[in-house]
Amino acid sequence: MEVRVQKIRKEFGRFPALDDVSLDIRSGELIALLGPSGSGKTTLLRLVAGLESPTGGMIFFGDEDASKKSVQERNIGFVFQHYALFRHMTVLDNVAFGLKVRPANRRPPAAEIRRRALDLLDLVQLSGLEKRYPAQLSGGQRQRVALARAMAVEPNVLLLDEPFGALDAQVRKELRRWLREIHDRTGHTTIFVTHDQEEALELADRVVVMSNGAIEQVGTPDEIYDYPVSPFVYGFIGQSNCLKVTLSSGEIWFEDRPIGLRAAHEPDGSATLYFRPHDIELIDGCGGCLAGLVTGSRRVAGTRHLELDLGRGHPSVEIELPPERATAADHTRIAFRPTKWKLFRKEEKQQQAPQEVETRARELARTGT
Ligand SMILES: Nc1ncnc2c1ncn2[C@@H]1O[C@H](COP(=O)(O)OP(=O)(O)OP(=O)(O)O)[C@@H](O)[C@H]1O
Ligand SMILES: [Mg+2]
Where along the chain is composition biased (Basic and acidic residues) (predicted)? Predict the structure, then answer.
């Protein structure tokens, strides 16, 4: 089922937890809501479910105004952030619960309920464990029961609020892959909340990046990673560097020299240059480029990360090189130029990216100003 969120506002007291949020979710899509703690992810999910009502705006399921539908009528499958199964019920009864409590006219016969619950346990690879109680399962198995339970009602929309949050990294990774497979097989429209960017980028058809009760960007994982639209998204997704630069006649200058990057249509003035550590090229005998002294070096899997000091008052910059290219000795001078980058002007900036705050703090600690 298609879900359209239109200009939603939600206030708790006078605090706006969501402000003017609009989002179109296509039928069968797997959408990840990604954002820092308190950005409004759970609130948005609860509004779609009908567990909260909006202060303003509308939510449509297909062409129907969902506000006219009760939680039951919306037919949602929900896995909560801190999910608890019914401890006194077996795995099978947990999965069958949503069907058993339906009003008599919509309730399938008992044998059909049992068959469906067993099929779902097969789907989540828990066949044979139907007589166990939740306490006799591992964390990952419990989350899979929770998912089977949410899917049992054949939901119009499946809402998952950090379903794997409490599990260790390895189990999370397995469940993540497995959730994608199940989604592809069942085709439920699914909204998945996480604050783990890797999880969102790996799993989702589209990612919704949220911050402070608003949507910063919606896009495919590639779009979000390769073309962040704001300093916040640049700072929040993946690693990035930011440097204060100036523009003069379409050229980008760092301190007193041009660095060989052009931004032809940008007006003169100050700006911030963003680039990712791996989007750089090394330059021999730098005429117009960036340069810094190596202050740290670490090997991370297949690449070497170098920390560079670009001079007093500037945040250190991290670049990533193939290990064989890296001259890693401290105080070696490295000249480089970003190959892929983006400029943000002050007036575009709605808020400070966390990384900039951190950078500023480091700057203050270093210069004492
Ligand atoms: N029932 C409530 N009463 C008052 N404030 C609330 C209520 N629920 C949420 N909030 C506030 O709304 C904001 C958004 O909360 P929400 O739970 O949606 O964040 P979240 O993105 O899910 O965060 P997390 O990643 O920590 O789960 C927070 O500042 C929170 O304190
Ligand atoms: Mg939450």
Answer: 357-369
